[in-house]
Amino acid sequence: MTEPFGEMQHRLHLTLVAMPGGGKSTVGRQLARQLGVPCLDSDSEIEKRIGMPIRDFFEREGEDAFRDIESEVIAELLAREQDMVLATGGGAVLREANREAMKTRSTVFYLRSSPEELFRRLRHDTQRPLLQVKDPLKKLRELYVQRDPLYRRTAHYVLETGRPSVHALCNMVLMQLELAGLISPDKVAATVGAEPQPRTLEA
Q: In this structure, what is the dihedral angle of CA atoms 123, 125, 127, 130, given to the nearest 10 degrees?
């Protein structure tokens, strides 16, 4: 396993990668609350820049134009000096420059879900451009085959999201960060010992 970036000893950058519906935003917000740092969402930052929903931009300008802006935004966010949790878009790993930036400038967690789990969470979602197709489960399976190796190549850690609650997933992340020496044991004890509100990735 590749060691997390050495600079992380004095700057805490966590990046979450996963398929669409993999829980990046939900887990990211909870993690950020527990760590007392901002949670940034690359898709939200992109929408601020383009001034429209990503779905509309996709339809108007195409995927390549979107990926160009996505790469710019991810590079800028990871260049910031502030501690943060960064939730990325599902296709952020498609470009090598993004994978390299995430792996060298942050500690990356891959929240792995099967295509079937993802379909159960996303079957009523009308906002994700790549899933507005006749057979979204088939599309998710195709995306998974393409992207799972890239997520694994980018991540320092892989977490299975099938059964754990959001609270349990966050605790797994915190314990890995403590073992890596990136956060203090006191922070882990305070957050892991807290009583969670039951919550799933579909919440």
A: -10
First to last CA, the chain: 32
- pLDDT band of residue 192 (cuts 50, 70, 90) is low
Structure-token pair, residue 189: 């004890």
Check if the beta carbon of residue 159 is closer than 8 Å to that of residue 150: no
Per DSSP bridges, beta strands 13-17 and 157-160 are unpaired
* The two three-digit tokens of residue 181, written as one number: 């020496």
Rounded to whole angstroms, how far apart are CA atoms 174 and 171? 5
CATH topology of domain 6-186: Rossmann fold (3.40.50)
Question: Positive or negative, the Cα torsion across 170, 176, 77, 67?
Answer: negative
Residues 6 or more apart whose CB falls under 8 angstroms from that of 181 comprise: 9
Q: Which of 134, 137, 109 is nearest to 122 (CA)?
A: 137
Residue 87's φ and ψ, nearest 5 degrees, are -95, 125
The pLDDT tens digits for 102-115 are 999 999 999 999 99
42 CB contacts (<8 Å, ≥6 apart)? 70, 73, 74, 77, 86, 87, 88, 89, 92
